[in-house]
Design a protein that fits this description.
The chain has 195 residues and is mainly beta. It is built from two helices and ten strands; from the N terminus they run ααββββββββββ. The protein has one domain. The strands form two sheets. A six-stranded antiparallel sheet has the order 1-2-3-6-7-8, with no helix packed on it. A four-stranded antiparallel sheet has the order 5-4-10-9, with no helix packed on it. β4 and β5 form a beta hairpin.
Length: 195
């Protein structure tokens, strides 16, 4: 019995100290990667950031969502934005407009809902388009058969340049809102009335 115990102890001693280095690990200094990982994961700032313009006019929430490009020394209208062509009136994706309640633009009723907002810029006249389809890349899939309304407005020349495309939604009277679009030295605006 004593021989078996000695043999067992001897075996344990060899196993605990012995030559099996297969499962042994050596501490390796580690570097802190959090700094450059965070920098790599952080997206570059967009040159056309997402923006919103909105107002609640007598219970009607009017909301515009768009990407706002900058002039950055470029010729905008008649250059970057062609005259006579449908424009998403923003960058990246089509600009969209949403009315919580139906509105009247000119003599036409536009039901509550979310719509694509497009324009056709011109030197002396712009066409504003509200289209059933709001989710698309720029105006790539624009279909005039899905227009809810088209109307025209006269562009206004600004004295100073507006660097970034800017939408404004402003209540001007009970039930009436003015929506304006300004970029570079051009501005258009139109009224929307709660119906």
């Amino acid at each position: 019995m004593k021989k078996i115990n000695y043999f067992f102890l001897f075996f344990l001693l060899i196993a605990s100290c012995g030559g099996n280095t297969e499962n042994q690990t050596t501490a390796v200094p580690t570097e802190d990667h959090s700094q450059h990982q965070a920098a790599a994961e952080k997206p570059a700032a967009s040159k056309s950031p997402k923006k919103m313009a909105m107002a609640i006019v007598d219970g009607n929430h009017i909301h515009i969502d768009y990407s706002s490009p900058s002039v950055r020394g470029r010729q905008i209208f008649g250059g970057l934005v062609a005259y006579g062509e449908v424009w998403a009136t923003g960058a990246h994706k089509a600009t969209w407009i949403q009315f919580d309640k139906s509105v009247k633009i000119g003599e036409k009723i536009v039901p509550a809902g979310k719509y694509g907002l497009f324009t056709i810029p011109g030197e002396k006249e712009w066409t504003v388009i509200i289209n059933q389809v709001w989710d698309m890349h720029l105006a790539d899939d624009y279909d005039p058969s899905k227009d809810v309304i088209r109307f025209t407005c006269t562009p206004e020349k600004l004295d100073s340049s507006v660097e970034s495309l800017t939408y404004q939604v402003q209540k001007i009277a009970s039930q009436t809102t003015t929506i304006s679009i300004s970029w570079d030295k051009t501005k258009i605006k139109f009224d929307v009335k709660n119906s």
